[in-house]
């Protein structure tokens, strides 16, 4: 899971602020990675909804974030490739 999570975190960090992870590095999970899509320094729920719909078309499922927080959540469990 280290390799998978590193790839996701690198993509977020190299997106020039388009994808944002609000969790401090020392508290970040290797199995559940939440992030937001941000435009003009504000989370963009319309783009997040579009991202999730297009992800489903690419067989990436259950990316919707927690109902209390929103955003997107990538889960990297051992049985997931």
TrEMBL record:
Alphabetical list of InterPro entries matching this protein: Pser_aminoTfrase, PyrdxlP-dep_Trfase, PyrdxlP-dep_Trfase_small
Cofactor(s) listed in the protein's UniProt record: pyridoxal 5'-phosphate
Gene Ontology terms: biological process: L-serine biosynthetic process
Pathway involvement of the protein, from the record: Amino-acid biosynthesis
Membrane-spanning parts: none
Keywords: Amino-acid biosynthesis, Aminotransferase, Pyridoxal phosphate, Transferase
Any one GO MF annotation of this record: O-phospho-L-serine:2-oxoglutarate aminotransferase activity
Domain of life: Eukaryota
GO cellular component, one term: cytoplasm
Protein name per its UniProtKB record: Aminotransferase class V domain-containing protein
Annotated source species: Rotaria magnacalcarata
């Amino acid at each position: 899971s280290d390799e998978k999570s590193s790839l996701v975190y690198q993509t977020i960090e190299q997106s020039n602020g388009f994808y944002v992870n609000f969790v401090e590095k020392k508290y970040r999970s290797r199995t559940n990675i939440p992030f937001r899509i941000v435009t003009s320094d504000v989370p963009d729920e319309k783009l997040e909804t579009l991202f999730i719909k297009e992800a489903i078309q690419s067989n990436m499922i259950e990316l919707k974030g927690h109902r209390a927080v929103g955003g997107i959540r990538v889960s990297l469990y051992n049985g997931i490739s």
